[in-house]
């Protein structure tokens, strides 16, 4: 227990902790948007619970990933595959309209389907968070684990509160769903160009890939949504 808290509250520890908090604020935004997208079509009485369960499950996944950050997350092709899956999830969330009202007869998105989407996509999107957290924590070897624990604890309210905030925004401004999908597409490009095996071949085309992914996801989502509206008429 003493080794767990060794090095805490030293100047180096506080400097590293401040860096981790800033990274959490910067890198957790897309995770919060993802959770809001996944929950936007749930019945109102399920949204808060899905955000809580999905968010806590996502943090648990981050804890497990952090423990194996230098092994599993550094594996070749993992980030490339994760980026490809994230593109699929971005389109799926953009075109998911199962949250209709009782008048339309549409079946609402199920609670566990939303939680499952949150957990899978957050695992993919947490690669940069986890590697950044582990990297900063390693700068203070004697306080590494206390920094990791504190960093993960700080990420919980950031992700949960951020998800609630973005969900409210999306309900008031539905067009923001497209902005959220664009952020997921951008994140997918970053993951794929940062892959340990294929990233060296894609890095030079990173700006082009980011633009193509964003245009592709938004364009495909728009076309599919228009097709669905025509079929409903």
TrEMBL record:
Keywords of the record, alphabetical order, are: Membrane, Transmembrane, Transmembrane helix
Q: How does it sit in the membrane?
A: Multi-pass membrane protein
Chain coiled-coil ranges = none
User: Which GO cellular component term is one of those annotated?
Assistant: membrane
Where would you find this protein in the cell?
Membrane
Coarse class of the primary localization is: membrane
Q: Does the keyword Transport apply?
A: no
Tell whether DNA repair is among the UniProt keywords.
Answer: no
Transmembrane regions listed in the UniProt entry: 13-38, 50-69, 75-94, 145-168, 175-192, 198-224
- PANTHER family hit by this protein: MEMBRANE BOUND PREDICTED REDOX MODULATOR, SLL1022 PROTEIN
Family note: Belongs to the TerC family.
What this protein is called in its record is TerC family protein
| Originating species | Selenomonas bovis
